[in-house]
């Protein structure tokens, strides 16, 4: 049977690159991109695109039937910093979009779901270094609360109804193709833009705030690898820890200076500092490595090289 994919939230930070990669693997005609509005971009112009509201069950069901969808990637969400400004809507979007897709799988209308979780599920009481797969989780943000709750529902639907749902907890993601999208880790994207534009950057986190990060190519590869893994290999149905590199704003600034010696950075922590302080500094992802062979490829130096090279263009 042909794999037919629907991506909900295809125009977001991760969705954009995920859609491009999935189209290259499965063919344009088998990957349906969708989002709440139609933008003038490659995702819309280079393949099948549908306008869909992730909160509208009937719309999603209609698309699944129309295109005979087998796999859904639910990438629509309100991210950490944005969600704090509109908690009720963030909860509604992040939770109910997931319920819609889980219920469609329960009704046997789709075979497989990918749903992203995040390091935001952890909180200030979580051990910060080498944060374990199973540990204390007391998130302090709406985003984190919705992701932790979502993990529990994913596991429940798998245990109770046999729904094949797969998930990873993304760390901060760094990419040159999309603008920062309102996340607490987005300084690590913005810093490259500003380094090239202005030669300086004012960081909204303190210089020694260490956070888990990952270059986008690695994150996309992890997403596709867990979806392509045998169902038996996926032993965790809440969400897998996923790690790449951990660094501080000071460390990334030093790395940029190797390429742009005149670059300067200043620090003016804002409300996002409190969010960052509640998150891990490094992640133990040994379960993902053991179960489905995960391994990151990009380190801070290789990532910085690629980021600056592409943004210059």
From TrEMBL:
It holds the Pfam family Epimerase. One of its GO terms (biological process) is L-threonine catabolic process. Residues 5-233 form the NAD-dependent epimerase/dehydratase domain. GO terms for molecular function: L-threonine 3-dehydrogenase activity. It comes from the Bacteria. Belongs to the NAD(P)-dependent epimerase/dehydratase family. This is Nucleoside-diphosphate-sugar epimerase.
């Amino acid at each position: 049977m042909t794999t037919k994919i629907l991506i909900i939230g295809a125009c977001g930070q991760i969705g954009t690159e995920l859609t491009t990669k999935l189209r290259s693997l499965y063919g344009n005609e088998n990957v349906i991109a969708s989002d709440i509005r139609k933008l003038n971009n490659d995702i819309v112009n280079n393949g099948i695109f549908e306008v869909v509201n992730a909160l509208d069950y009937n719309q999603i069901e209609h698309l699944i039937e129309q295109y005979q969808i087998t796999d859904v990637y639910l990438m629509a969400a309100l991210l950490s910093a944005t969600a704090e400004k509109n908690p009720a809507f963030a909860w509604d979007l992040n939770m109910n979009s997931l319920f819609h897709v889980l219920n469609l799988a329960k009704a046997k209308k789709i075979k497989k779901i990918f749903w992203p979780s995040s390091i935001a599920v952890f909180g200030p009481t979580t051990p910060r270094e080498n944060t374990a797969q199973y540990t204390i989780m007391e998130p302090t943000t709406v985003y984190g609360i919705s992701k932790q709750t979502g993990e529990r529902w994913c596991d429940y639907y798998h245990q109770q109804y046999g729904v094949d749902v797969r998930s990873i907890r993304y760390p901060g993601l760094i990419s040159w193709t999309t603008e920062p999208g309102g996340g607490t880790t987005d300084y690590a994207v913005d810093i490259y833009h500003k380094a090239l534009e202005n030669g300086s950057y004012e960081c909204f986190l303190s210089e020694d705030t260490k956070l888990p990060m990952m270059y986008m190519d690695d994150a996309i590869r992890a997403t596709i690898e867990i979806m392509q893994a045998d169902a038996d290999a996926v032993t965790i149905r809440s969400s897998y820890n996923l790690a790449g590199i951990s660094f501080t704003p000071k460390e990334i600034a030093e790395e940029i200076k190797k390429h742009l010696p005149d670059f300067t950075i200043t620090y003016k922590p804002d409300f996002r500092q409190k969010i960052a302080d509640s998150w891990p500094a490094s992640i133990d992802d040994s379960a993902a490595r053991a179960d489905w062979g995960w391994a990151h490829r990009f380190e801070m130096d290789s990532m910085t090289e690629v980021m600056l090279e592409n943004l210059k263009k």
